[in-house]
Specification:
The chain is α/β, with parallel strands linked by helices. The protein has helices spanning 23-33, 74-83, 96-100, 104-110, 135-142, 161-186, 196-203, 205-212, 250-260, 275-286, 291-298, 318-323, 359-365, 370-377, and strands at 14-18, 37-42, 62-66, 87-90, 115-120, 190-195, 232-236, 242-246, 305-307, 326-329, 332-335. The relative contact order is 0.16.
């Protein structure tokens, strides 16, 4: 699928992404969404994640070339890209990029102004730095996983949004943009060490302040914002669906209990000893109507009540539809780029980059004819498919076995 030049606030910025899984690709996608020209360097054979590359939207707004970093010419080809880039992103275990010949020192020798972004779970230093891991282990160590769930039950994994993407990708992007600002002003690049444990811990800054002040108990579902409060949580409705309540402030709480039909229980807001009974009352009321019926009751109010929607329902909500929070591109419904910009608009310009599909274009646009030679030597066509049994621009064969989910921090 053809890709148009970036036209967001990062238009003109060149990014090299050494292919991986999870937070690194998502960070590179964010930069691509913002208009950067992102070239993903895929390895022969794929990234090792059992996801059809045709549907991996974290590779949208990118272009792909295939380079075997373990081949004699591979590192030099990547360094040719680095020489012309502003940013590099990699997510290997500490020391792997160096062993492959594309570590920070080598890259900065070719391009002193390069921002070298490193995405790991444990960080570049520390006792656990060389160990493998995934999101759930990283957030477990920071104390944030232990905050999520109900008393007497195991902590609940919040998908991989809290660690990989909030504590990982977003912090890497913030660091890369800050370092890029510095590089533009001074000409000096630097290494950005983005560790999921650091970012996730940083997300809990307010909670640590409340803990120090005695306003937070270090146990699950015992606090104002973790489900311990009866007017900040979720409730089941008559149809087995759920609504979310966040009526924290007095004026919102008053409207909430009024519309819920329990106005006589309003004083219990300040009486924590009565919160258990209040919760039972609220739960019983919500069980009398369906989710959509309660949504209609609270429509247009400031009671801070919302329906809990599924992933498939969310794009059709009137507010999200009006804002264009989701978009359809290439037959895939997906979140639109965020945030919004008044002058430098962003958009989905291209679908998921297929491995090697853009080699010819990148070789021309970046002035690296060696990319074509490297692709030829690896028996990979410039369109990204092996001459034997080409499958729809990088899509796996229907009978291909799932690949091992083992790339991150395992090289």
């Amino acid at each position: 699928m053809a890709k148009t030049p970036g036209h967001g606030p990062l238009a003109g910025v060149r990014v090299v992404e050494l292919a991986g899984i999870g937070p690194g690709p998502f960070a590179a996608m964010l930069l691509g969404d913002l208009g950067a020209d992102v070239v993903r360097v895929d390895r022969p054979g794929g990234a090792g994640l059992a996801v059809n590359p045709l549907y991996d939207v974290t590779n949208r707004n990118k272009r792909s070339v295939i380079v075997d970093l373990k081949s004699p010419k591979g590192p030099d080809t990547v360094l040719d890209l680095v020489e012309r880039a502003d940013v590099l992103i990699e997510g290997y275990r500490p020391g792997v990029a160096e062993r492959l010949g594309v570590g920070p020192e080598t890259c900065h020798a070719r391009n002193p102004g390069l921002v070298y972004g490193r995405m790991t779970g444990w960080g570049q230093q520390g006792p656990l730095a060389p160990r493998a891991g995934h999101d759930i282990a990283y957030i477990a160590l920071t104390g944030t996983l232990g905050m999520i769930g109900t008393p007497g039950t195991p902590p609940m994994a919040p998908a991989n949004l809290l660690g990989d993407y909030a504590g990982g990708s977003l912090y890497l992007v913030v660091g890369v943009l800050a370092a890029l600002h510095h590089a533009r002003a001074t000409g000096a690049g630097q290494v950005v060490d983005a560790a999921i444990v650091d970012g996730t811990a940083h997300l809990s800054a307010m909670i640590h302040g409340m803990l120090a002040a005695g306003g937070w108990q270090d146990r699950r579902a015992a606090n104002l914002l973790d489900g311990g409060c009866p007017f900040y949580g979720t409730y089941e409705t008559a149809d087995g669906q759920y609504v979310a309540v966040g009526a924290l402030e007095q004026q919102f709480y008053d409207e909430f209990v009024d519309l819920l039909g329990i106005k006589g229980r309003a004083p219990a807001r300040k009486d924590t000893a009565a919160w258990g009974e209040l919760r039972e009352t609220v739960a019983a009321r919500f069980k009398t109507r369906t989710r959509d019926e309660w949504t209609a009751v609270f429509e247009g109010s400031d009671a801070c009540v919302a329906p809990v929607l599924s992933l498939c329902e969310a794009p059709h909500h009137p507010h999200l539809a009006a804002r264009g929070t989701f978009t359809d591109f290439g037959g895939i419904t997906q979140p639109a780029p965020a945030p919004r910009f008044s002058a430098t608009h962003t958009s989905v310009r291209g679908g998921p980059a297929q491995p090697g599909a853009d080699t010819t274009d990148v070789a021309h646009d970046w002035g690296i004819p060696g990319l074509l030679e490297d692709a030829s030597s690896q028996d990979v066509s410039p369109e990204g498919t092996s001459p034997e049994g080409a499958h729809a621009k990088g899509a796996p064969a229907k009978d291909a076995p799932p690949k091992d989910f083992s790339l991150r921090h395992t090289d």
